[in-house]
Design brief:
By secondary structure, this protein is an alpha/beta fold. Helix content is about 45%, strand content about 15%. It has eleven helices and eight strands. An eight-stranded parallel beta barrel has the order 1-2-3-4-5-6-7-8, surrounded by eight helices. β7, α9 and β8 form a beta-alpha-beta unit. The longest helix is centred in the C-terminal third of the chain and has 18 residues.
């Protein structure tokens, strides 16, 4: 996926999603389709976006037995998706099955989701994990690298040390990105496009900060410029 800024289509309908795509025009080439929109509208939206020449980050957050995950990854490849997410906490067998299923689709990259950005240290003990997001992210990122995943999904707060320990060229996709004017969200670990690029992220995912902006096209352009400038200077 070439574009550094992936726009999240966090909408309830295909009409609203495509309205934003039309507003952004040729400037934006990469979009995230998540569970809500996919459940509302089905796979037709993904086909429409791919048909327009857009790259689709299909954020399925797969967490199932290896056979089921492999089938879903293959289905994502058939749709023309460029990225698909699998929970690293599902284990190495699942991650390896996902990578294997993606091989017939050379443009499809498997991303291992480490710890979702709504969780903080205090939340991990509630689900029986050691109370450190950093330790958990490191463990899962190493698992993903060993399984052959193309990249990981993690917050900007973890991106800097992940860049140091992950193999060269492995993608680090960072959600929870906000612009300075953005309102509060339900994500606990957030940062700016500049911070993401400086930390070593390869891609950022931005949703409401662009979709809800008075001028979405300008918000996208500003975010991309901020990321590219910081990446160049970093």
């Amino acid at each position: 996926m070439q574009s550094s800024v992936i726009v999240a289509l966090d909408f309830e309908s295909k009409a609203d999603a495509l309205a934003l795509v039309n507003k952004l025009g040729i400037d934006a080439s990469a979009y995230k389709v998540g569970l809500q929109l996919l459940t509302e509208e089905g796979p037709g939206l993904v086909r429409d976006l791919v048909g327009q020449g857009k790259q689709v980050f299909l954020d399925l957050k797969l967490h199932e037995i290896p056979h089921s995950v492999a089938g879903a990854v293959a289905a994502a490849g058939k749709l023309g998706a460029s990225m698909v997410t699998v929970h690293a906490s599902a284990g190495s067998a699942v991650l390896k099955a996902a990578v294997q299923a993606a091989k017939p689709f050379p443009n499809l990259m498997v991303l291992a989701l480490t710890v979702i950005t709504s969780l903080s240290d205090s939340d991990l003990s509630e689900i029986g994990l050691a109370p450190s997001v950093e330790q958990q992210v490191l463990r899962l990122a190493n698992l993903a690298a060993e399984a052959g995943c193309h990249g990981v999904v993690a917050s900007v707060l973890e991106a800097a040390y992940l860049r140091r320990i992950l193999p060269p060229g492995m993608l680090i996709v960072t959600p929870g990105i906000q612009l300075s004017s953005a309102s509060a969200t339900d994500q606990a670990r957030i940062a700016s496009p500049q911070a993401a690029a400086t930390a070593g992220a390869s891609h950022v995912v931005i949703g409401r900060a662009i979709a809800k902006a008075a001028d979405p096209r300008k918000a996208f352009s500003d975010a991309l410029a901020q990321f590219l400038l910081a990446a160049k200077n970093g």
